[in-house]
Structures are given as C-alpha cells and as structure tokens.
Write a structure and sequence with these properties.
Blueprint (H helix, E strand, L loop, with lengths): L2 E2 L1 H9 L4 E3 L6 E4 L5 H7 L8 E3 L3 H5 L6 H14 L4 E6 L15 E5 L4 H10 L2 E5 L11 H7 L4 E3 L17 E6 L2 E6 L10
Parallel strand pairs: 1-8, 2-8, 4-6, 5-9
Antiparallel strand pairs: 2-3, 3-7, 4-7, 5-6, 9-10
Helix pairs in contact: 1-5
C-alpha cells in the first residue's frame, strides 16, 4: 500500500516510479515516457495497445509530434474547442517519442490534456507523462484510488486527502479518440466528448 501526498507523487514520477492520479475521465496509471515499460508490465498490456502522452500544455505535447503549418491550423480547431478535455488526438509522432510508447507503430502518438485540477497540477510539475487507464489489460477501468491501491500495490497512489471534492468532475467514461490520417480526422472511439464537426 503506497498512498502518498501530491508532492511525493510528483517526486516519485520524476524519479521514474509508476504513479496513479485522477483525471476528468478515469484515473490514470502514469510514468515518465522513457519509463513506459512499467505500465505495460503492471497492466500485463500487449505491445499492440499503445499508451498516450498526457500533459498540462499543448506546446509540450506538440513537441512529440510532427506537422506542417497547414496541418496545425486544422488541428487547432479541435485543440482550441476540446482541450483541456476528454479528447485524445492520434498524431504523427516525432523522434522524441520513446519507441516503448507505441511498440508496434512508432509513427503515431496519442496526446491529451485532462480537464481536472489535480491532474493538471501534477502534470505541470512532472512534465509530459505516458498514461493509460488503471486496470489490468482487458478488465474494466478502476475508478477509485482505493481500488487502484489494492490492484497495484507498488504504484504510488494519490492519498484521498489530497483529492477532496475535486474528483467529482470525473466522468468515469474513456476519452473520445480521433486520428489524423490522410489529411483528415477519423473517430476511432466515441467516448465522453461528442464532436459535432471533424473536417
């Protein structure tokens, strides 16, 4: 049982530990991008299921992608409307993305900014983190810090006292996923966000 304060969790993530904290969808299991193998091992997750990068600012996240000015102008329409929020964008990956994030397709990377005060406070301090839902692969996402603490005893889990009422804005639903392919958007998973117009 490793329940820690927000400061301890941030220090642990920076030091290379796997951590868990609430987001606006379901709680995240996270690590520094170069330590992402930890998440695959903890979740018993197949290599064919990539992780996403979560950050506090779009500038940080875009440094993990490649794009033209024309593409960025199109991306900005979704970014400005839905982020921070429950939308994951799958974009062309830059060489900065560690191969372990997406072992079977290093050409793309998913990015998201959560709309959750605790998650944003943590990400501002840690920088971009590799993330996934907190659950064993194939199982339902765990939705409380207590359940995550029991399932993953080696993971640094944010102590309940740090959460107070801030976690109530979590939807319990996964993010909507859209992919930029052939110069247009495609919806890969319909989640909490309903997008009216893509292209």
């Amino acid at each position: 049982m490793v329940k820690v304060s927000q400061t301890e969790l941030i220090q642990g993530a920076i030091a290379g530990r796997a951590v868990s904290f609430p987001t606006d969808t379901v709680p995240a299991l996270a690590s520094k991008p170069e330590q992402a193998k930890l998440i695959f091992q903890l979740k018993q997750r197949p290599d064919s299921k990539p992780l996403i990068l979560m950050g506090a600012s779009i500038a940080e996240l875009l440094s993990y992608t490649v794009y033209t000015s024309e593409e960025l102008a199109v991306w900005r329409k979704l970014i400005d409307q839905y982020l921070p929020g429950a939308l994951t964008l799958i974009l062309p990956a830059s060489p900065k993305v560690p191969a372990v994030i997406n072992p079977t397709n290093s050409n793309t990377v998913g990015i998201r900014i959560p709309k959750h005060p605790v998650a944003l406070e943590i990400l501002k301090e840690t920088g971009v983190l590799a993330t996934s839902s907190a659950n064993l692969s194939g199982n339902d996402a765990l939705t409380t810090m207590e359940a995550i603490n029991q399932e993953f005893p080696a993971v640094l889990v944010l102590e309940g006292a740090d959460l107070s009422s801030k976690t109530k804005i979590a939807s319990g639903l996964p993010s909507t996923i859209v992919c930029w392919q052939n110069q247009k958007w495609q919806i890969l998973r319909q989640g909490s966000v309903t997008i009216k117009s893509l292209n």
